[in-house]
Amino acid sequence: MRTPLVAANWKMNMTVEGARSLVYAMSAGLREIPVVEKVLCPPFPALLAVHALLAGSDLGLGAQNMHWEEKGAFTGEVSPPMVKELCSYVILGHSERRSLFAETDETVNRKVRAAEKFDLTPIFCVGETLQEYESGRTSEVVTRQIGRGLADVGAEFGARIVVAYEPVWAIGTGRASTVENASDVIGGVIRPALKGLFGQPASEAIRVLYGGSVTVANAAEYFTAGEIDGALVGGASLKPADFVGIARAAAPA
User: Fold this and answer.
1) CA distance 247 to 16
2) What is the rounded CA–CA span in Å between residue 149 and residue 145?
3) Are the C-beta atoms of residues 45 and 14 closer than 8 Å to each other?
4) 96 classed as catalytic
């Protein structure tokens, strides 16, 4: 049985002091839900402060991105060893990185392989745009993203990867995918693609999250669908009571 996971992607929000306040406001409630893995992903400047606050707790810490090179002349970038010093997780391939910063399946793959090298667990994001969804290309797009983005990754490490299905048309729009649609994509597209890459045992071990306008009001509906192992939460993760409520909804009955 896969352990549910709920990850908070704070995106480009929160100063260091704001991040501290947010952790204080939600940490007690999150620690009361031991059967769900919780991961906080603040912006880079707040990682050190949040790392200190989470020490000794069961709350995980993740970065929102990283470069694939270990070091070098890459002004403004953050390397895998820098992330590894503080984090266990890293979000890779988020649609905002793809659409706004020209990331491709190939560059995301280089980052995934760097995560494997430095023992970081990727939260690997896939999802189709509205145009791709309306033209019936969801399966094609998501299968391509998985095949190229996870190429040349070993099955043992592959079993550790967390996949987040985030239809781009649902991210931050208030237009969440239906549970049926999300379950169909995860069960009918993502799982078969993972099986093709890593084999049956590894593919069954991989947790697949849903992301895209997840709220405390709709979370339970997603988590009761057998294909969905948790959520990558954006806007609602900035509201302590809402994020705690989402994590509580992910707890197995």
Assistant:
1) 23
2) 5
3) no
4) no
